[in-house]
Structures are given as C-alpha cells and as structure tokens.
C-alpha cells in the first residue's frame, strides 16, 4: 500500500494505532501547524513493548542472511519514496529540500553498508578436546530515542542495527519531528513481521517511560548530553544496556600553511550546514595567528554566499533552526557575547538589539538565523565552552602547537575534531593527540557507516556503525564445548 503523508499514526504489532489525544509540531519556516500525531499513553507503550517481545523469538531465530535481505528490500523502498520523505522532512525539520533528499539517500547507503557487515561466531580456543566459541546473541527489545536534527537518518541507523542483529525495536521520534519517523516505521511493516519494528509518538513523558520500562532491554539514545545523563540514570535501575550519542563541541585546528580561501570555504560548510544543528559540526576554530586576519575575511566571504530561507525555495543553503526553544538558546549565546564583551561579532547578529535579522526570510516568519561569526572570544566564554547547536561560530587564534592541543582538549565533550594542513604528517601527529571519537585531517563532519562513531567524555557511551556498532546490540556469550566429560577429580 502506498504511503500518504497527511495522516499519521503509531505503529504497534504491524498495525496503525491511534490515540484519543493528539498533538502537532510546526513547520519552522512558516510556523504553520503540521498534521496531528498521536500522544501515546503508558498503555500504548506497554502494547508496543509487548508486541516487540512476542516478535522476538521468530525474528532472532531468522537467519542473518534473511534479516539482511529484508533490510535491503526496505532500504530500496525508502529510497523509492525519497521525494515524499524529503518534502515531509523539510516541512518538519526546516532543512533545505536538497539536503533532505541527501539525508534519505544517505540513509539507504547506511543500510546497504551495514548490511555488508556480519557478526559471526568466533572460535577463541580449540584444543585438548574443548572448543570455546564467542557468540553474539540479540539483546532483546530495544528502544530508540531520536532527536530532531536528522530525524530520518538517526531513526534508520537505530532500526538497521537492531534488526540486523536480531533484536526488535520500539522507536520514538522527537516531538519536534515526529512525521518522517512514523512513516518510516509504517513503511517497514511491508517488509518486517508484525512487532519487529514499532513506533510511538508522544510528549515529553514518553522518553522517561521508555527508559524505565522493565520490558525494554536496551536504549539507543541520540540527543543532548544533559538528557543523556538522565537516560543513563533511569536505565541504571533496570540495568538496561545503553548507547548514548550526545552533544559535541568540535574544534578545528588550522595550521599556517593552508590554502586559505579553500579551507575557509570548507570550514564554513562544515560549520553552517544544517544551520549548524549537527552534533559533529565545527564548533570552535583555532586558526594560526599568522593567517588569522586573512582566514576570518575568507570565512566571512564564504558564509555570505549561504542563502538563508525556507527550505522549499531553491538555492537555500540554511533553513531555520528547528524550534523556538532552539532559537532562544542561540540568542542566549549572542547576548552573552555582547553583555560580557567577549569577542567581536564580525558577521551576522543584530548586536544593537541583541536580535538576529534574517538576511532573507522569503517573506515568511520562521526561526531564521543568519550565519554569525564571533572573533577572539576568551577560552572560558560560553560560546567557546558550550554547544549552541545553531549558527553562531567562535574563531580564536593560536601560536604554539602544544598549547593549541591542550586548549582543543580542554572540554567536557569529545565527539569530533579536525586538523587542517598541507603537511599531512604533522596534521596526523596532532590529530592522534586529540581527545574525540572521530578525528579528521583536512575534512570534518564526514562519518562513514563502516567506521565506529561515538563520543568520548560527555559526548557519549558506546558507538554506532561498523562492526562495533552491531556488537553494541548483542550479548556476548562464550560457549564452552567439551567433546567428552573430563574428570576433574
Ligand atoms: P534532546 O536531548 O532534547 O532530545 C532527544 C530525544 O530525547 C527526543 O526524542 C526527546 O523527546 C527525548 N527525551 C527528552 N527528555 C528525555 C528523558 N528525560 N528521557 C528520555 N528521553 C528524553 O536533544 P535534541 O535537542 O532533540 O537534539 C540535539 C542534541 O542532540 C544536541 O546536543 C546534539 O549534539 C545531539 N546529537 C548528537 C548526535 C550524536 O550522534 N552524538 C547526533 C545528533 C544530535
């Protein structure tokens, strides 16, 4: 059956399911209401967890190859509907349509790549009549808690890990972006047996109900570090397994030998893409003092090319930020810069009135924010230490290599980092000393599905993607098999 993107329901045990209460989120470009979605109750959660539990035996005993083939057929079905998913994504999230389309395409790619990985039994010892085999056994029922910045790819990532490894799953999209997540799971019903993939939309209480639910064995959470702490605390009571993919404050270290216009344009892209609402966006720039002036001029010139506006309009690079809370949060960073006099706003930010003035709102009234660049804030300022998750970017300078490594590592976060230089050997030496889960030389924000992705320190626990990501959805079992009973007496 074809999907329609006008009515949205929960999906429990393979079937659509409605709720008495409804809510809706708004299109951040226009502030118009999107369609109604369910507000799930505890009973809905119990029903979804029950369905996932009932489906577990059959699915976990389905051979890996068959599970992989089902996932691949589903991946194709998602890609075949990429336009419809992308349009809905732009309406709920705000990102430009071309980037919404690439989010759907990259989700297909992620499923295809993950499907090429397989966890096989490993013989760890075979001697003296005894064989020891390391096995990967599904954990059980998983709970996926998804944020609003990449509602499709993060939901798909969690579904793919769970189903490949033989787990079943209950998915919760963000209340700000529930639409594409619900439709992804509706579409999944055409491929997976009932109860294997379920979805619930709800209010702020649904996440905590999931993390404390005794019938859920693992929570795969992506969101802020503050919420991640609450998730872990709640999961500890039932000793659930957790994967936490949390916030970041990624540094980019620019060495003096770079091609300034080229690197500045790349950094502008990796900072302002998705209106900077990316966990692994560049969020602190350390540029060598000898090129700082020229680099900042080039960075501003590159960022000025970015058209801000409704993601449905062609040529738009930056849509609005996703919601009013996020808008006010970014304002708070600008106000702090102005009030404390830390740093010079060299681009964006209507500093006179402490309010941003969208360059081009396309005649609409959404949560638009111009790309904003703050030069030379102090290392202890809010903008250098915290994650705005919006388009306000600090640039500072360095002179001594040891010192800049220390400053880049001086953070509670450890998600991503990058080093930029023509001297790749020198850049790699610096990169190896940075405390982050993903470190790039001469690029940033470029995770690949075969490489484990996760945060150090306050940026997370565990990883997704690659073999290690799949292992995170399994119990490891050491199976000892003796061919004959050996007397120990
Ligand atoms: P958030 O923490 O506010 O919400 C994330 C999800 O958690 C939502 O579905 C929300 O409804 C749910 N939630 C809220 N409170 C909860 C609770 N007490 N228990 C359980 N669930 C709860 O995050 P957000 O604002 O949606 O997303 C932005 C944050 O996510 C940023 O900090 C960003 O860096 C981070 N992020 C990290 C990654 C990564 O892979 N490391 C990827 C994307 C986003």
TrEMBL record:
Instruction: Give a yes or no for keyword Aminoacyl-tRNA synthetase in this entry.
Output: no
GO function terms (MF aspect): aldehyde dehydrogenase (NAD+) activity
* Catalyzed chemical reaction(s): an aldehyde + NAD(+) + H2O = a carboxylate + NADH + 2 H(+)
Keywords linked to the UniProt accession: Oxidoreductase
Which catalytic residues are annotated?
245
Gene3D superfamilies reported in the protein's UniProt record: Aldehyde Dehydrogenase, Chain A, domain 1, Aldehyde Dehydrogenase, Chain A, domain 2
Q: Which InterPro entries match?
A: Ald_DH/histidinol_DH, Ald_DH_C, Ald_DH_CS_GLU, Ald_DH_N, Aldehyde_DH_dom, LUC3-like
| Residue ranges occupied by any Aldehyde dehydrogenase domain in the UniProt entry | 21-478
| Enzyme Commission code | 1.2.1.3
Where on the tree of life does the source sit, at the highest rank? Answer: Eukaryota
For the keyword rRNA processing, the answer is no
> Which family is it part of?
Belongs to the aldehyde dehydrogenase family.
Protein name (record): aldehyde dehydrogenase (NAD(+))
């Amino acid at each position: 059956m074809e999907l329609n993107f006008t009515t949205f329901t929960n999906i429990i045990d393979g079937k659509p399911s409605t709720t008495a209460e409804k809510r809706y989120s708004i299109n951040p470009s226009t502030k118009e209401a999107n369609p109604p979605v369910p507000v799930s109750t505890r009973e809905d959660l119990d029903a979804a967890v029950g369905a996932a539990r009932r489906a577990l035996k059959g699915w976990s005993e389905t051979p890996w190859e068959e599970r992989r083939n089902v996932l691949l057929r589903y991946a194709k079905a998602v890609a075949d509907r990429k336009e419809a998913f992308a349009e809905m994504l732009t309406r709920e999230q705000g990102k430009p349509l071309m980037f919404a389309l690439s989010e759907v395409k990259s989700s297909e790619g992620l499923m295809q790549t993950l499907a090429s990985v397989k966890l096989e039994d490993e013989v760890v010892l075979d001697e003296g009549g005894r064989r020891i085999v390391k096995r990967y056994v599904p954990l059980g029922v998983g709970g996926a808690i998804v944020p609003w910045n990449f509602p499709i790819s993060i939901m798909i990532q969690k579904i793919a890990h769970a189903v490949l490894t033989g787990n079943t799953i209950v998915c919760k999209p963000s209340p700000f972006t529930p639409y594409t997540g619900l439709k992804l799971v509706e579409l999944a019903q055409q491929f997976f047996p009932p109860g294997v993939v379920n979805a619930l939309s709800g209010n702020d209480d649904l996440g905590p109900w999931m993390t404390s639910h005794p019938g859920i064995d693992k929570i795969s959470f992506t969101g802020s570090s503050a919420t991640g702490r609450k998730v872990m605390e709640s999961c500890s009571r039932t000793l659930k397994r957790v994967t936490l993919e949390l916030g970041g404050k990624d540094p980019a270290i620019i060495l003096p030998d770079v091609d300034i216009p080229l690197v500045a344009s790349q950094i502008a892209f990796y900072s302002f893409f998705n209106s900077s609402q990316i966990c692994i966006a560049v969020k602190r720039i350390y540029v060598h003092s000898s090129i700082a002036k020229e680099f900042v001029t080039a960075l501003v010139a590159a960022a000025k090319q970015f058209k801000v506006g409704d993601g449905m309009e062609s040529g738009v690079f930056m849509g609005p930020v996703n919601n009013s809370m996020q808008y006010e949060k970014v304002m708070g960073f600008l106000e702090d810069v102005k009030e404390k006099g830390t740093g010079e706003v060299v681009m964006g930010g209507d500093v006179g009135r402490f309010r941003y003035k969208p360059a081009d709102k396309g005649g609409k009234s959404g949560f638009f924010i111009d790309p904003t660049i703050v030069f030379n804030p102090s290392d202890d300022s809010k903008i250098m230490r915290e994650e705005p998750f919006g388009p306000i970017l600090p640039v500072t300078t360095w002179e001594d290599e040891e010192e800049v490594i220390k400053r880049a590592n001086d953070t509670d976060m450890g998600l991503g980092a990058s080093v930029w230089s023509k001297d790749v050997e020198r850049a790699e030496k610096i990169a190896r000393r940075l405390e982050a889960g993903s470190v790039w030389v001469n690029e940033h924000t470029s995770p690949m599905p075969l490489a484990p992705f996760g945060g150090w320190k306050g940026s997370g626990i565990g990883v997704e993607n690659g073999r290690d990501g799949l292992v995170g959805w399994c119990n490891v079992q050491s199976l000892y098999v003796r061919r004959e009973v050996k007397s120990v007496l």
